[in-house]
Structures are given as C-alpha cells and as structure tokens.
Specification:
about 350 residues; mainly beta; 8-stranded mixed beta sheet; disordered N terminus; kinase; transmembrane helix; receptor; transferase
Length: about 350
Amino acid sequence: MGLLVRVFLLSLLLVSSLAQLPSQDILALLAFKKGITHDPTGFIADSWNEESIDFNGCPSSWNGIVCNGANVAGVILDNRGISGIADLSVFANLTMLVKLSMADNNFSGSLPANLGDLRSLKYLDVSNNGFSGQLPEGVGKLQSLQNLSLAGNDFSGPLPDSIGGLSSLQSLDLSRNSFSGPLPDFLKSLRSLVSLNLSYNAFTKEIPSGLGMISTLEYVDMSWNQLDGGVDWKFLVESSVIHVDFSGNSLTTANPKELKALAEISETVKYLNLSNNQLSGTLIDGVELSTFGRLKVLDLSNNQLSGDLPGFNYVYDLEVLRLGNNAFTGFVPSGLLKDNLWFK
C-alpha cells in the first residue's frame, strides 16, 4: 500500500512540474532573444526573462508581446534601436501569430524557409533593417497575409512566383532593396491589392500588363528601377488607381501621338509621375485637355518631349505641373499662369 502511495505522489509531482514548463511560444521568444546584441533601452533585455514567465502560456507582461488567451498573437518591436541577428525561424512555433512587426531597427538575417508555417499571420513588417538574401518560396504559403513590408533592406534576386498566391494581400512594399529580374506577371493575380510599392530596386523589362484587372488597386510606385518599353496607358485609362509613379526608368513612346492617351486618363487618377524617362513626342491639344480627368499632380519633366505647350485652359483641378528639361518650344500659355497652379 505504501508503494502505491509513493507512486501516486511521484506522479502528481511529475504532472505538476510539467505544468510549470514554459510554453512553446515562450521558448520561441527566448530563442529569438539570444540573437540580440544591442538593446539600448532594454526593451527586450529587461523584460523578456524567465523570472517573469506567465505559465498560462503567453507572457503578457513582456514588452512588445500581444496575447490572445494562452497564445502569442503579436510581436511588435518597432523603432527600438535593437541590433542583432534576427532568427525568424524560431517563430514558426507561434501558430497563432497574427502580427510580426520589427521595423526601424538594426536587425540582420534573412527570411527563413519555414516562414510559411505562420498560417495565421496577417501583418509582416521588417522594413528599415539590414535583412538580406532572396525571398523563400514559403512566403507564398501565408494565405492570411494582408500586409507585407520589406522596404529598406538588402533583399535581392527575383521575386518567387509563390507570391502570386497571396490572395488576401492588400499592401505590398518591397521598395529600397536590391530585387532584380523582370517584373513578374503574377502581380495581376493579387486581386485584393490596394497599395503596391516596388520603387528603388533593379527590376527590368516592361511593366506587366493586366494591373487594371485589380479593381482595388489605388497606389502604384515602380519608380527608379530599370524598366523599359512603353507606359501602360490602358492601365491609366481603365483602372481606378489614384497614385501612379513610373519615374526614373527608361520608358519610351512607340509613336509621337501616344501621349493623346492623357486626354482619356481615368478620373480617379490624382497623381501621375512619368519624369526621368525617355518619352518623346508632343503633348495633346489643349482643347482635348478638357477631358483630362481630376489629375492634381502631373510630372513629365526630364524626358524628350517637344513642340508647343498646349493651353491647359480647361484643366481646373491641376495643382502641380512639372515639364522642365524637355525640348518644348514657343511661349508659356496663359493657362499655366493660374494662381492655383504650381508650374515648373
């Protein structure tokens, strides 16, 4: 009888000790902490420690941690001046993670192959750090992802085709990196996309057709890449986009009358920047400009445009017009001397 009692008591002790083990979420966070080399405010160093573990499963008292019941739902470390190698592979165990944001720090590392295991992730922002390497195919498994911001790092290589499967993605910001290769056709498959920023990379070839098929798209920035070919006028005429920036590329016009498409531009377009390209030909006749939509900013500077300037007499919404460093001739029309129009 005494033996049975001792076995029973040992079993209780074993169960009790197991219950006090940190959860896999906590272990993942502690593993990530090991890569931190500099934490000037002690945001992680003074908070993420075993002495303050909440054995309910989620360390709600830790800085930057958002809990949903017993699970970690958010890791938010933005703008803390933290340095270190960010081993994001350890977060694969955070099965209920919805938001991972560590923008504006000094993290280095790469996106791991198992990133796609974060099936609940909706928001990923590692912008303005020192991450590098190519994007893994696994990023395409993040089917819940709505916001992906990798801006201001040193990611390189072509974009994986798997990104085209991110059907929930609303914002994609890959600006200020070293991505290269042709712009992929799969961009038109991102049917929930509202904002697309691919500026300041080394993308090549033509602007992919079909962006107008994304009815939700409002913001497009592909400036300062190595794109060639023509402007996608069909996109500008048929889409509901608001802001378009194709500046700083090598875009050309196939024929001198191609710019007539400006007269048919969608009324949703408020900002259009085609500066610093190789556009040639003459601007459309001033009478046709009465159908110029609701454009507020138009930048055609630093191209190879020529001929007389149109009158711009019937353009009432335009606030900023940049036409400098072209080969225009003749006089400045009176329509460009309006008090509410900034002309250069």
